[in-house]
Amino acid sequence: MTAPILVFGWGNPARGDDALGPLFVERIEALKLPDIDCLTDFQLQVEHALDLAGRQLVLFVDASLATEPPFTLNPVAPARNTHFSSHALSPEAVLQVYAELHDQEPPATFQLAIRGKTFELGSGLSAAARSNLDAACDWAWNWLNTGSCQPFATK
Amino acid sequence: MTDLETAAHPERLRRVAIEPLSRVEGHGKVTLLLDEENRVQQARLHIVEFRGFEKFIEGRPFWEVPVMVQRLCGICPVSHHLAAAKAMDQIVGATLTPTAEKIRRLMHYGQILQSHALHFFHLASPDLLFGFDADAAQRNIVGLVARDPAIVRKGVLLRKFGQEIIRMTAGKRVHGTGAIPGGVNKALAAEERASLLKDIYDMIAWSREAIQLVRQLFERNLVQYRDFGRFDAHVLSLVRADGALDFYDGGLRARRVDGTTLFDHFDTDHYWEAIVEDVKPWSYMKFPFLRMLGSADAGWYRVGPLTRVTQCDFIPTPFAERERQDFLAFAEGAAAHATLGFHWARMIEMLHAAEAIKELLHDDDLVGRDLVTTGSRRERGVGVIEAPRGTLIHHYRVDENDQVIRANLIVSTTHNNQAMNEAIRAVARRYFDGREVTEGLLNHIEVAIRCFDPCLSCATHALGRMPLEIEIIGAGGTALGRATRDSNGRFAHP
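Structure tokens for the assembled complex are given below, as produced in the milestone run.
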């Protein structure tokens, strides 16, 4: 059964603050909230357009070097864009692929960008990123507002 | 020294750098050195990749390695998973059971299928169908889906099918644990087998259609496709004992530029007797070469789909073998020697993977119960596979406390380091107009690099970073100009 809300985080857990997306999803998943599916992957890819089918709301979550700390939330609209190697898609491009493949508007989608600092292979989460993650999870608890969960504990 | 790699008087040259920026490792940079007449005198591709990977592994218990190496690369984690597991089979002295080997092969074919589908339908076909000079904002998967949603849908479903095989055999969609030292930790469930069987015939049919699509592109643009980024190279790949194409196991075969055999069925356990890793002062990346040829300049080689398809004796599945023969015969070998022939060869391999998956799904060993074996403990293990992008070597030493004390990885993109340089030089010679770095030149360099499908965008991909930058620096070190391509594909001269 496809849940109406999808929380999808991506990043490499072995590369320091790149783990922010998967860690956020891990905390959401631990709450066992109803009506929410949680997915993670290394990076956003074309087949993830299929994961959006049947959703009412999608929350994409990734680490960011460009966003203001601790995090920003922005709506995402379908758009045609590209990357140098295209080994990963942008959130906008995934929505565009969804729209073209299904010939319909994609579900309402937001991008949660959590500020990261260090991304070296083998390093753990930085203190700044941990603090930003806590803030993002606190916000998410209110935003999702199911009334059945407790505030996130600091990991 | 190879042509155009190092100019005689670089201090007199103008420097053009094309640099894709990414957050951490896995980025590439192209520099072109021009003379006073603005002719390309020197061209180099720098790839900063996999630095520190060996240190990341050393000190870990050996049984953790097949799982943790998946975190080295977000593009091909299954390749590292399987190469490490093969090496650890040797550490535990195991000979795999039929079920274990077939489950691993199924996982590997699933990976080849999904990786090649992604590359062709997502990465390469926009270049090929829209043209190399097309606006980058159009020349991408989203532009393609608007033009031909049926093609994209098939590409997405092929990729999804391969990902499903990985999920079923590895246990999880990401960071699976399927392959373990000495075997696998699960066989295929009956319902999983039935589910895959239901769709496999579509996958075979769509793979055959993809080959015809590439063939038509070659037929329509024969001269351009034959000559684009063309260079001659020695070649290296695994082949099965009977000379067949084999992605999972075999011996090393190397052939010289003229097609003569340098060595055949070379034991991968002693790969270092055949391959030497050279270093160059201008690149972090190593330059492997064939030891028998004496030096990196004389002994560099090419790996990957084009090499595998052209130097195996046959492909052991019927449709793919027929396509291989057509490919070799096409226009008197024009495609088999073309850099763009990588795309055609990749689709033949995708068809072979689909056919091999079908054969395995009809094999009852896939649902067997004999999953793991052990034998006499050893200190050294070497695992070699043909990953989607080419030969992948994992080599470990493990101490009496079961800790990895030495690791050496030679990845596909490293094998192809010099070969990619050669392709870029060929493109630079042909398409640089002698005046400025245009988007057209950048597009053509991108097309050349994409033929090899290198892991330039490795494991991370932060929002808000500029993926491409071009810088022009004069002979005196003064910046003469700069051009960028932002994350939305927009080209600009700030």
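Residues 87 and 488 of chain B are 42 Å apart (CA to CA). The first strand of chain B starts at residue 14 and ends at 19. Further analysis is deferred to the final report.
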